[in-house]
Amino acid sequence: MPELVFPLDSTKSFTDQAIVGHNRWHPDIPAKVTVKPGDSFRVHCREWFDGAIHNDDSADDILNAPLAGVHVLSGPIAVEGAQPGDLLIVDILDVGPIPQEDSGPLAGQGWGYTGVFATRNGGGFLTEQFPDAYKVIWDFTGGVATSRHVPDVAFTGIVHPGLMGTAPSASLLATWNAREQALIDTDPQRVPPLALPPLPDSAILGDLTGAEHDRVAAEAARTAPPRENGGNQDIKNLTKGSRVFYPVFVDGAKLSMGDLHFSQGDGEITFCGAIEMGGFMDLRVDLIKGGMDTYGVSENAIFMPGRTDPQYSEWLAFSGTSVTLDGEQRYLDSHLSYQRACLHAIDYLQKFGYSAIQAYMILGAAPIEGRLSGVVDIPNSCSTVYLPTAIFDFDVRPGANGPHQVDPGMGVPMSAG
Amino acid sequence: MPELVFPLDSTKSFTDQAIVGHNRWHPDIPAKVTVKPGDSFRVHCREWFDGAIHNDDSADDILNAPLAGVHVLSGPIAVEGAQPGDLLIVDILDVGPIPQEDSGPLAGQGWGYTGVFATRNGGGFLTEQFPDAYKVIWDFTGGVATSRHVPDVAFTGIVHPGLMGTAPSASLLATWNAREQALIDTDPQRVPPLALPPLPDSAILGDLTGAEHDRVAAEAARTAPPRENGGNQDIKNLTKGSRVFYPVFVDGAKLSMGDLHFSQGDGEITFCGAIEMGGFMDLRVDLIKGGMDTYGVSENAIFMPGRTDPQYSEWLAFSGTSVTLDGEQRYLDSHLSYQRACLHAIDYLQKFGYSAIQAYMILGAAPIEGRLSGVVDIPNSCSTVYLPTAIFDFDVRPGANGPHQVDPGMGVPMSAG
Amino acid sequence: MPELVFPLDSTKSFTDQAIVGHNRWHPDIPAKVTVKPGDSFRVHCREWFDGAIHNDDSADDILNAPLAGVHVLSGPIAVEGAQPGDLLIVDILDVGPIPQEDSGPLAGQGWGYTGVFATRNGGGFLTEQFPDAYKVIWDFTGGVATSRHVPDVAFTGIVHPGLMGTAPSASLLATWNAREQALIDTDPQRVPPLALPPLPDSAILGDLTGAEHDRVAAEAARTAPPRENGGNQDIKNLTKGSRVFYPVFVDGAKLSMGDLHFSQGDGEITFCGAIEMGGFMDLRVDLIKGGMDTYGVSENAIFMPGRTDPQYSEWLAFSGTSVTLDGEQRYLDSHLSYQRACLHAIDYLQKFGYSAIQAYMILGAAPIEGRLSGVVDIPNSCSTVYLPTAIFDFDVRPGANGPHQVDPGMGVPMSAG
Amino acid sequence: MPELVFPLDSTKSFTDQAIVGHNRWHPDIPAKVTVKPGDSFRVHCREWFDGAIHNDDSADDILNAPLAGVHVLSGPIAVEGAQPGDLLIVDILDVGPIPQEDSGPLAGQGWGYTGVFATRNGGGFLTEQFPDAYKVIWDFTGGVATSRHVPDVAFTGIVHPGLMGTAPSASLLATWNAREQALIDTDPQRVPPLALPPLPDSAILGDLTGAEHDRVAAEAARTAPPRENGGNQDIKNLTKGSRVFYPVFVDGAKLSMGDLHFSQGDGEITFCGAIEMGGFMDLRVDLIKGGMDTYGVSENAIFMPGRTDPQYSEWLAFSGTSVTLDGEQRYLDSHLSYQRACLHAIDYLQKFGYSAIQAYMILGAAPIEGRLSGVVDIPNSCSTVYLPTAIFDFDVRPGANGPHQVDPGMGVPMSAG
């Protein structure tokens, strides 16, 4: 095991740890940990709600989730010698649930959850169809997830961090805040909101205190969206063995990470989302000095996925186009066409006995693939969603005998939004 | 070889063939070919511009492409016993370039092309960056494509039909026309247009003549967009060995196909697009009676890809978010985030000596994968584009030694739009 | 299509063709076709028994197969400039059944066969268990093989040449003949024989005639075994897209090929064997001058498999050790341990209702993988055979409910040896 | 983490642990641990020589390795309700190096070794070419192995147990002893020996003592060979996610395991062999009552590999036939043909600057695949060995520019045998 540089004690809250992480992006959050290029090290990560979600059969905790407090991140970790303009190489040597703890109240202790927020909390990708709060508990047996809430499906984990990134510079942060506020201003009362402005309430900023804490809290960006620094990209393929290249915007790079997922489908369509858990990451860092200019990588993370993602060779795929459910034609809207593809998959799975929300939860948590298949054929984009057939305990393909019927069991806990 | 039911003579134009196909969707285009459930048969397909694009080093033909005449489709082919409500199973037994003809003036005779339209002709996915007309010729050597216009790249074909589908019913056609006209009406003068209304000019409607021809031509839908019947989905994974399930909207199903591609990246981002060619398809059809209701498949094609797609195990991926190049924040716009991911890949490839348009052409033609990675993290969606590293003759990964430099050679022919 | 340099007319016997190939290895068989480095070209190939095996339900033709006449090979093809010491690069651009002919009396016209020889004809890998002659007919529908003799199994073709190689030099030929005769001499009366000496009877030697024919026929090596020149390697992964490097032993290299297989399991354990067929190969050749020494490749073919082999992600594997069925312990005998692994797979498949010979035929024809898992753990080697579970129409995995029962149907035709 | 039922303290020798395992097979070794069908549990495993091999640059420890003491196994573990005739399902939930310990004197603490024995100690697959003792140390960084003794190669671990199996019944044990002694008796003085008879010296038999210890020690089978109970199969694909089915020969099944490998090529050709290490296994067991008869599995383990083995899509393969290096023709000897294929690969790699022993070590430790390609083409079998090209830091393919030259560095430590 590499040296543990950022420990978390499962029995304590995120703010009571030896080193306190953060839940906002800001260049002035102090790095309490420093590593050198070439170093390998271990980081513990807390699940994104710091333990507020429980292993039970109620969705009340999802309904009342402490949204202001996300994402609790481990870091920032300074990398010696990193300067603006460099590319930071991050090798994901390993990533997994909380080691040696397979039961307990924290997601990551042998279990995780997938949630759908009520619309007023941000909803999900299909919030019009699923406006309430829902929760599914998944049990991890070795590398495989199963659920008492979604029967007859099991899949090998495609474990990855939902969120990892470097700190923004002050000017980049200002850019973020300005452009996101401009969007909010176009419809400030929208539910769900268009974006999330800085929010001092619940801000955790490492060991900052007093006036400095308040200044930073007032400026710091929320962690929900992915941005130029990587951040909450929710790319399911950032698995063990992956190499990521992040732009460096501040001295020391200030790398942070968290929001671990045991598994996720492309898009994290359920929002809360993936199979959420805490755990650990083993990382190795290095630098390409001046690499941002050398390789033209200035405003996005680039990466090479690992070689051990779960392998499937048979897929059932659904397509969608950019026409709304009400029949309105939109112009090359790939977001909409992916929604329609997902809804088509849900329609299909319901014919096998699943409830609609069970089907939605499968799409959010299993390693489905979402593809931008056609993006130019005006006015309809075409998106596709691919389901690995082997994750089902039964034959999920269309055939002459009609769909097998599953027993939906207790179903998915719901709390009215 | 299965029986050839729809032949095309490479020396004759599409309208001079023994059986004349069509280039519009309408339920009343007569089927001159009928097959039975269980039948295997061969269909010839003409490249989508009926030979207007030449194997040369000028993009003038792309600039002046006969857009009103696309897509020249083979069919309709009636399937005995098919009725509205059925699912039509179509097995793609084989698909390839024009057999036994490896040189000649027709795309598919040993070569194909990728084009980018000038903005006034519809542009491409990145028309703001590439407003002119461009063309690249690809040579097929066995299963591999290479180009004198894009050096040091070679990839195994992922051969597929860009377009296949069943005929719409009269009411479905009316729905299409109404919703697309409503979109056009929101900005009728837009360049490129928001959608393409029915266009009697250049309509090919099988053997219809006279008043019936004129009636149908006035009503028939253009073939550019994918819709409920499948159509121009441009799904690169509909390769040999795939099984597609189409909804049936009219008696006999009336299956048509064309727009063959030797290869394509997810999205067909260059629009004209993929590696365009003529060729053949070997198909087998069958029916699931009443399958639309049984499986909940009423407004989209579903499919299972084949088992012999080209295999790559190492990928270099680029991410993008829904912020415009001008810095404007958009709300969960996966179309935009995929554009940004593609632009990031183009930025990167330019550092290796490629021109921007060469890089764009690689993304359009090679088997890149485009993923909807994050679609819920307001306000930024995250899209990713994956390039197989093995398609390059050199090491395309970032490293300590900096990017290898290719000789861009003659480059990509352009004609000012 | 590349230029057809070696045509075969399906209506004529192998010796009545415009260019007559050969069925023995000898440096002095004249090359009637010459190609240049860099050339692409097409070659027709006859099935190895020149049409003696029929599409029927009797194994009499296998029992009486004209063994002295195999393998009918296309070539030799001279490569300009090739000299002893070079490496000959052969790219398999394409390989498939007889194009445009999907029915007829020749294997390759839409069908192929797998046979097991009677012991006196050479038997098969498991000749003690299966001492008679057997035959299975496989139908090709697109890229997939199915059989009326082996129900409920279907697999995507892994099409390849069983045999390809360069001509031996006179001294290499002498070495072959000497070492094989020395083996024969250890047990000259053995049934099946230990090796096959030169046999003038039925020798086909291109257009050689008279005394030269008789001289060459007396010296020429049989084509059954693989040797330093490649030859009858029966490597199932020499599929479309593969690149092979052959040592060059004579001026012009004199490349020959044939014995096409629609599919085969590792080992070609049924001997006659694979799914035998005629068809075509599209090849491209090039030279690495002096490459034998440069790369240390002097007595074997090396190769890189293609990228489009059929993909499976779930396998059921059986192991075997080097103990005979009679319980005798052998020393690190990987041949025996693979026999035992195959027998274990046959035992297993019989529990699902297959006859033993049906199971054997599946192992011979389907793309099973045979691995040398352990070769050092004295006294037992461990070999394993992997079956892709997706080739079965039913769930072939062990489970709580016991094995599904197939209807074995008419079964496998047999003729007593 | 599942419950740890078989702990090992890294600071103590194998015989000083709380529960002492065993290094021989015998039905009467007591099971100190019992689990139930459905249980998941963790087992620690010691490296097979119990720490006798050091992380240094001398091969003296390999030369003097305590062969009489291998393999130190964890177990036996009794499974409640298991009876002779059942099939024992063993799911490998996880397997890895010693957790939380990345440095220290035990293989598995961040490093492992590959050895070749001197001929008098059993040699290796190529002992005629490599008659001395050699050792290579591999460092584990996350999931990847690299070595100071073999430069410019790195590969993702394919972690697995070399040895796992159930206890033999008394009659099965007697069968083993009889048949192996019969083999030994054919050449009792052979070096290396033909097989290893029971050896009371160094026998570890759990907590047996006194006369019972001596009786069992005199009868118990050595653990080197794989046999009907599974045992030392050295199958590199028994990775995380695999399911194995073992025959049950005694009440409680008495499962044991050990000899963990961080990586291995097919065959474990270097014998000591693979990348040897200690570590842990997380297992889940279940029973198919009467399954040996139901599925015809009575004398071998069957298994389904996991879904997360490292993926490679480009391979360079070498073939060999059953002719000795001295030119003697053998009859269908797949063991010999695999030796020749491996020697051909070694010849090739030497042209890139590796020493012969470095090349041999790569083949033993990296995830190469060894296939039984042709086993019927008398007199030559054809075996092939596939190297994933991506494990090399340079382009290992043959080309026009000749082989890249690596700096072999300090090379492989050797101790004269």
UniProtKB/TrEMBL annotation, chains A, B, C, D:
SUPFAM superfamilies to which the protein is assigned, alphabetical: Acetamidase/Formamidase-like (SSF141130)
GO molecular function: hydrolase activity, acting on carbon-nitrogen (but not peptide) bonds, in linear amides
Record Pfam families: FmdA_AmdA (PF03069)
InterPro entries from the UniProt entry: FmdA_AmdA, FormamaseFmdA
Matches recorded under NCBIfam families: FormamaseFmdA
Name listed for the protein in its UniProt record: Acetamidase/formamidase family protein
Organism of derivation: Pseudonocardia petroleophila
Organism lineage: Bacteria, Bacillati, Actinomycetota, Actinomycetes, Pseudonocardiales
